[in-house]
Each structure stands twice: as structure tokens, then as C-alpha cells.
Amino acid sequence: MTAPQPPARVTRATDFYTMGLMFYGIHFYPDFETMHDDEDRLKGPIDCFDTDLNRLVFGVGADGNVTGLWNTGEKVEEEYVQAHLGRMINLRQTFLRQRLRSLGTSVEAADRKKSGMMQEMVIRLDELDNGDLAKRLKLLREPPWYPDPMDPDTGNYLHNCFEHGRCW
Question: Which of 49, 57, 48, 46 is nearest to 24 (CA)?
Fold first, then answer.
């Protein structure tokens, strides 16, 4: 009888997602270091999986610090991820539509700019509402560029709204 083997370390810790289990956020990271250094990463309980839907868990060193990601060998069910994304999209759609109604016919230029971006975001979210998982996850990996009205120099509005819930 052979001894059980530890989970295989994700040797190339790239292309994985963290999914917030409390506030329905999801974030794509190209590698572990980027996630580890991201001060804006998801807080609270999260689920991690790679692009092949393999569940990943955090490895913790003797000092209590996170050292990397480990592949558990378990698959994350596509329906689970789809349901999470569906709830996340619905929350953002509801927020944006309510915010658009509250902006109404504002004459402020900043409000008009925000309103235009919000209308574009509603269209993008509507496209994803019943999208297949591959299309939804590709949007997270490769979001089209929409300058964020609150952070026009560096912020991508699509990324900020969809992944962080910052839809302004």
C-alpha cells in the first residue's frame, strides 16, 4: 500500500480565478505573485480555481504566510461557477439600472459621462447574462478597455464593475 501523495503544487501558478463567496466578486490573476501583492484582492472566504476548473487551495508555510497555490485534484462544477456569475451579474445589473434612474436627466457633464458608461455596462452585462462559461471567463481574462469615469487614467470600468463591484 502506498502512502497518500500530497496535492500537486501548481508549478506554473498562472491563469486562475478567485471567487468571493460572500459578496459575489470574481477576479482573474495571471499568477500567484500578482494576487498576493494585490491590496484590492477579494476579502473573506474565497474559492480558487484554474482555467481548467481545477480547485486550488492556498499553501501555508510554518510561519503562517501563504506560500502558493496547490491543486487539490478536485474539479469545480461548472454549474457552481455559472450560478455564482449569474448572481454577480444580476446584482450589478440591478445596481446600474437603479443608479441610471437616480441620475435621470442630470445636466452635470460628469453625470452624463457616468451615465453613458453605465448604459454601456448594462449592455455588456446583458450579453453575459445567459452566456456560456467560456465567454464569461474570457471577459475576466481579457476585458475590453473602457476608461473608468472615476479613474480615467488607469482604471478599466468593465474590470472594476464586473470583478470588484465598483460600478459607481
Answer: 46
Q: What is the pLDDT of residues 111-121, one digit of tens each?
A: 677 777 788 88
- pLDDT tens digits for 109-165? 666 777 777 888 888 788 777 778 888 887 777 776 666 666 666 667 777 776 766
Q: In 3D, which of 161, 21, 22, 19 has the Cα closest to residue 92?
A: 161
Domain residue ranges of the chain, discontinuous segments joined by +? 8-76, 79-164
How many Å apart are CA 75 and CA 78, to the nearest integer?
A: 9
- Residue that the C-alpha cell 454577480 belongs to: 88
Q: How far apart are the first and last CA of the chain?
A: 58
C-alpha cell at 128: 453575459
Cell of 167: 460600478
Q: Which triple of cell numbers denotes residue 103?
A: 441620475
- The upper half-sphere exposure of residue 64, i.e. CA atoms within 13 Å in the direction of its Cβ, equals 0
Across-strand partners of 156?
147
Output the pTM of the full model: 0.72
